[in-house]
């Protein structure tokens, strides 16, 4: 399934602060913690707890969020299907990064062990 230009633009302009509470709700319903969520985000982006909060306060878009990020060199090891899209087949770089984050949050909510979520080469 290919992403469309409109879908890619919508994702780019989506505010991180509008999605973050949904991540929290999803993982807490499954017994995971905000600290674990922040650990996952830090692994992917390099953002610590304070930086995540600053980006939320600044109401940044996902485009800006990932422009500021230092993507983990092992992020390419994130594979599978999320939101109906196979991550490995997503061509738009920003959309792929957002789906990486979605996949990590999904794995956290599904109870996957942290060592497996934080991929090592």
From TrEMBL:
Matches recorded under Gene3D superfamilies: uncharacterized protein sp1917 domain (1.10.8.290)
A Pfam family assignment: DUF2200
Entry protein name: DUF2200 domain-containing protein
Organism name: Christiangramia sediminis
